[in-house]
Amino acid sequence: MAEAAQKVHVLNPFDHVRSLCQRIATKVGERVVGQEETVQCITAGLLLGGHVLMEGVPGVGKTLVARTLADAVHLKFARVQFTPDLMPSDIVGTYIVQTGANGQPVMSLQQGPLFANIVLADEINRASPKTQSALLEAMQEKQISLGTQTFALPQPFFVVATQNPIDNEGTYPLPEAQLDRFLMKVLVRFPTEDEMLNIVARTAGAIEAEISKIADGDQVIAAGKSIRTMPVAEHVARYAVRLVFATHPDHPTAPACNRRYVKAGASPRAAQAVLAVAKFFALLDGRLNVAIEDVQKAAYPCLRHRILLNFDALADDATTDTLIRQTLMELDRKDDPSPSKPKKK
C-alpha cells in the first residue's frame, strides 16, 4: 500500500512545479526581508507569463525584489530607468551603420534592453506616452516592430514595472489599456519595526547574499504550462466570473459601493488573471484543486488596477482594495457556493 502511494506521489506532475515555486520564493527571501506577498506575486507572474506592476514609496525594495528574482534564474535581465525624455528607440533599439566584411557600409540592428527575458521598467509612469506604447506592444504581442520588420522577443518575456504613488510631478499616468496588460498590481508595503531592524543588520555587512540560479527558461515555461492545466471546478470559475461582473456599476449584481464609486469595471482579462493566479496560490498551498479562498486572495492583485474610480471615490478617499473587499463580502452574503476548504495533500 505504501509503495503504491509512493508511485502516485512520484507520478504527480505538479510536485516539481510546486518545489520550483517554493525554491524561487526561498531564494528571493534570502536577500529580501519580508514582502512575502510581493515575492509570491512576482514569482507567479514569471511562471504564468504575465507582467507585474509594483507600487510603493521609495526604499521599500521594489527594485531589489525584481533584481533578486532575475538572479535566481538563468535568464537575461535588463533594467530601464524611465524618464520623460526616454525615446522608444532607447528601449526597443535602432538601426546603425556599420562596416561589413567587404568593407561596405551595412545597416545592422542595435538591440535595446527589451530584448531580454526579464525587464525591470523602473518608474514606468515617468515615460512619455510614445515610449509607453512601444512597451505595450512588447508586453501584449511579445514582439517589437522596427520600420517594416517585426522581431520576436526571447521567451519567457516578463516585465516588472515600478511606480511611486506619492510623486506625481513629471509623470504620465498609465492608460487603462496598458494597465489591463499587467497580470497583477502589487502594493509593496512599508516594513515593520522588526523587519526594518533586520534590513539594517543585513545592509551593515559588506557582502550581499549570493543567490544561486535554480531554473532556466525551459523550466520556467514548462512550470507555467503545468499551472495553467490545473482543473478548476465550475462553481469556482463561476464565482470568479460573478466577481468580475460585480465590479461593473451598471450590472444588477453590483453592490452599492461599486454603483457609487466605480466608473468602469474590470475587463474579461481580469477573470482570466484571477483564475490563473488562484491556481498558483492553490499549488503553493499544496493543493491540486482551486478553492474559493484562492480566488479571493487573487482578487486584490488582479483587480485593483482594473477598476476605474470616479470623482466621488477620489473625494471620499475610497480605494479599489476597499471596494474589492466589500464586493467579496457582498458575494458571500448573497450566495456563497464554496465548500469547506480542502485539506492539504
Q: Would you mind describing this structure in some detail?
A:
- By secondary structure, the protein is an alpha/beta fold.
- Helix content is 47%, strand content 16%.
- Strands 3-6-9-1-10 form a five-stranded parallel β-sheet.
- α2 crosses α3, α10 crosses α12 and α10 packs parallel to α13.
- The protein starts with a helix and ends in an 11-residue tail after the last helix.
- The N terminus is likely disordered.
For the structure shown, list the relevant keywords:
two-stranded parallel ribbon; five-stranded parallel β-sheet; 47% helix; 345 residues; disordered N terminus; single chain; alpha/beta; Helicase, Ruva Protein, domain 3; Rossmann fold
Q: Mean pLDDT across all residues, rounded?
A: 83
What is the domain tally?
2
CATH topology type of the largest domain: Rossmann fold
The major beta sheet can be summarized as: 5 strands, parallel
